[in-house]
Amino acid sequence: MKNETKNPAIDRIDGRMKVTGGAKYFADFDLPDLAYCVIVGSEIARGTLTNIDTKKALSAPGVLGVFTHLNMPPIPGWDAPAGGQADGPPPKPATEETYRILSGPKILFDGQPIALVVANTYERATYAASLVNAKYSKQTARTSLEKHIDKQVTPKGGDYSRGKAYAYQSAPVKLEADYKIPIEVHNPMELHGITAHWTGDKQLMIYAKTQGVNATQQAMAQAFKIDPKNIRVHTEFMGGGFGMGLRTWPQETAVVAIAKKIGRPVKLVINRSQMFTMVGHRPYTVQTIQMGADNHGRLVAINHAATAETASYEDFTEATVNMTRFMYECPNVSTRYRLVRLDRSVPIWMRGPGEATGAFALESAMDEMAHKLSMDPIEFRLRNYTETDPEHNLPYSSKHLKEAYERGADAIGWKDRKNEPGSLKEDNWLVGYGMSTGVFNAFRWEASARAILHADGSLVIQSAVTDIGPGTGTALTMIAHNVLGVPFDRIKVEYGDTSHPKAPSQGGSAIVSAVGSAVFDACTKIKNELFELAVKANGPLAGAQTADLVLTEGAISIEKGLDKKVAVGKLMESSQLSKIEKDADLKGSPDLQKYSMYSFSVHFVKVKVNSLTGAVRVTKAVSVADSGRIISPKTAASQMIGGVTGGIGMALTEEAVIDHRFGRFINNNLADYHVAVHADVPAIETIFIDKPDPVINPMGAKGMGEIALIGFAGAVANAVFNATGQRIRELPITPDKVMQREV
Ligand code: MOS
C-alpha cells in the first residue's frame, strides 16, 4: 500500500451512470404483476380508532386489498413481549407502549398507519386510500418536550463524571447557558420504501431503501421466521440516506407480509409528508452547559446535560453529550442524558447524529467562554488541548487537530477577524467569523469482501455494502488499485446486494475503514499468491524471495532489478489459471483497548448579517478534516461539501414545526422545510490533513462522513455572534431570532 503517498483524485466510478439514468434505485425495479401500496395515516396523534370503513376503498378500480388492524396478515416473528422495538425483536427495556403496525386500534403518533391500500397502479392505490374513512376517540397529544420535561426518564448508559461534582460553582469565570435543537428531518431527494417479491413460499427478494442490506435481510428473517439465506436484499444505489435507512421500519415488514398474502410483488414508496413521520428524524433536544475556567483560560469544569424527545413506545438514544467528556483537557466533567417519551414517532440517527447536536452546545459554549475571557476562540481551544483522551486515559491513535486549526484559520482569513463583536461592516451587512471543532469515533467494524483477478488483467471486487452516496465504490477501487496495481478502468466493484460477502450497514463513518480493510486483505492474498507463482514458475523470477517482489503496472518484478519482469496475465496463463479469487472476513479493530480512535474536524465560516432584516448569509466556509489517509480525494471533498451544505441547513433554516394543539407537523413538505440549496451555499474549501493513522487499518484511513457536519452549526452561531454580538442558542438562526434583539 502506498501509505507514504497521497492518492490521486479520480472521478466517482458510478458518477456517469448516476447522472445518465443508468443507476437503478430501489423504486426503479419493475416486476411482472407489481402491485402498489399506499399508506393511510392517522389524523390524530393520540387516542383510539373507533371505526374504520374500507368498503368504498375496496370497491374502487384496481384495488387488490385494504389492510387494517382488523385483517392484517400476521407477522410470525413479532410475537415478542410488550415493549419491543417497532420493527420487532429483540425487545428493548419496557417503555409505556408497544407499537406494532396495524396490530390494534391504539394511536401513538400522528401519521401512524391505520390502513395499507394495495392496487394495480400507484394512482389507483392513492385514490382508494382517499376513500378510507376513520373515526377516532381522541386524547390530548403530548408532543411538547418542555411541557412534559418533568416526566423525563434515564435511559441505559447512565451519567458520567470525573473530578469534583461542584467544581463549576467555585470557578473564577463561569458560564451557564441553554441550547436548543429543533426536530430535523433527513429529507433526502429519494423517497423511502421497499419492494417485496416472494419468489417461493420461503423465498424472498427485496429491493429497499436501506443503508444495510444484511441488516434488512436479518430483520426480515426474524419477522418471517425464515432462513436469511433465502432472503436476498438489493440496494445498490441510494438517493441520500443520512441515517433514515439504518433500521427496517415497520411499514417495510408490513409490505412483505401483504405481498405474501396477495401473492404478488408489492411496492411501497412513501410520500414527502410521510417522510416526516415514518422513517425517523433528529430528535428535539434541549441542553444545558455549565462551564468554568480560570483567569488564564484553563477549563476548570464542564457539566453538560441533554434532554431529548423519544416515542412513547421506544427509547431512542444517541451520543449527544459524549464529546464533552474527552474533547478538552478539563479535570472536572459531568454529563447527563435524559429522554421524554412523547406521542411522536420514534427518532433515529441523522447526519452526524447526537454528536452534531452536542457539538452545537459545547462549541457554542467554548466560544462564549472565550469571549468572557477576551481570548481568541482558537487560542482558548489550544490552551485546553489534549494529546491523550481524558475520558479513557488512552493515547489517540492519531490527532492532528492543531494543524487543522492552523490551516483552516489561514484559509478563512482568521487574521481579519476582530475579537470584539460588531467590528466589521460592509454596507448594511455586519461581518463575522466563527469556528468550531468536530469529532466522531473512528470505528472499524467486522466486514468481508471478495476479490477476483482475471487472467485478462481485470479485477472484480464484491461486497454487500451499499453506497449511500459518499463514494464507497470509488474508495474501494482505489484501495484495490493500490494493492494490485490494476488500472482504475479495469476494476469493477459489485456491491449493495446480499449475494455478495457480508458487510456492515453504511453508517457511522466506518465503511472505508471496515470494508476497505477487507478489500485490502483480499487483494493482498491475491498478490501473495501471484508472488508464490512467480518464484515457482520457470522464468526471470524463478527462485527469487517473495519478500523482494513488487507488483507494478500489471507486472511482478524484483524491487531492486525492475528489468526482470513477469506480466501477471502471462503468469496466470502459464500457471493455467483463468482467475484467482480470494475472500477476506475480518474482525473489527483489535487495538481499541490501547488507543482512542477519533476523526477530527474544524469548521470555519465567514457570515454576513443584514442589519435591517436579520438575514444571515454564509459567504465562505472552510472545513478541515483530520481523518487519516484520504483514500479518494475527490469523493471525500464532495462528502465534506455535502456536510457543510447540511450544516448550513441545520444552522439557518431546517426545523420541523409541530402544532402542539394537534400534535402534527405544519411544514411537512420541501417548500416549508427548507433544506439548503445552491443559493444558500457559498464556495466551500475543503482541506485534508491526509496523514495516515498508524493503528486503525492498513490504509491509515479514519472515517469522515460525520465530521463533515459535526460542529458546523456552532461555527455559524459563533460567526453570527462575532458579527452582531447576538448569541443565538436556538437553531435554526432565523431572521426573527436575530431581530428579536437589536442588531
Ligand atoms: Mo449516518 S447518521 O451514520 O447514516
Summary tags:
26% strand; binds dioxothiomolybdenum(VI) ion; 31 strands; Aldehyde Oxidoreductase, domain 4; 3 domains; globular; 743 residues; five-stranded mixed β-sheet; seven-stranded mixed β-sheet; alpha+beta; Aldehyde Oxidoreductase, domain 3; 15 helices
Summarize the structure.
The protein has 743 residues and is of the alpha+beta class. The chain contains 15 helices and 31 strands.
State the CATH architecture of the largest domain. Answer: 2-Layer Sandwich
CA-CA gap between termini: 55 Å
- Write down the CATH class of the largest domain: Alpha Beta
Number of domains: 3
Share in β-strands: 25-35%
The helix count comes to 15
Number of strands: 31
CATH fold description of the largest domain: Aldehyde Oxidoreductase, domain 4
Helix content: 10-25%
Q: Looking across the biggest beta sheet, what order are the strands in?
A: 3-5-1-12-9-10-11
User: Globular, elongated, flat, extended or rod-shaped: what is the shape?
Assistant: globular
Which ligands accompany this protein? dioxothiomolybdenum(VI) ion
- Uncertain stretches of 5 or more adjacent residues: none
How many strands, what sense, and barrel or not for the largest sheet? Answer: 7 strands, mixed
Secondary-structure class: alpha+beta
Radius of gyration over all CA atoms, rounded = 27 Å
- CATH superfamily of the largest domain, by name, is Aldehyde oxidase/xanthine dehydrogenase, molybdopterin binding domain
Describe this structure in words.
There is one protein chain. The protein folds into three domains: 26-140 and 191-271, Alpha-Beta Complex (Aldehyde Oxidoreductase, domain 3); 285-443 and 593-738, Aldehyde Oxidoreductase, domain 4 (2-Layer Sandwich), CATH 3.30.365.10; 446-587, Aldehyde oxidase/xanthine dehydrogenase, molybdopterin binding domain (Aldehyde Oxidoreductase, domain 4, 2-Layer Sandwich). It has 743 residues and is an alpha+beta fold. A hairpin with a 2-residue loop joins strand 23 (549-552) and strand 24. It contains 15 helices and 31 strands. Strands 3-5-1-12-9-10-11 form a seven-stranded mixed sheet, with helices on both faces. Bound molecules: dioxothiomolybdenum(VI) ion (MOS). Residues 211, 241-243, 246, 349-351, 353, 507-508 line the site of dioxothiomolybdenum(VI) ion. Dioxothiomolybdenum(VI) ion binds next to loops.
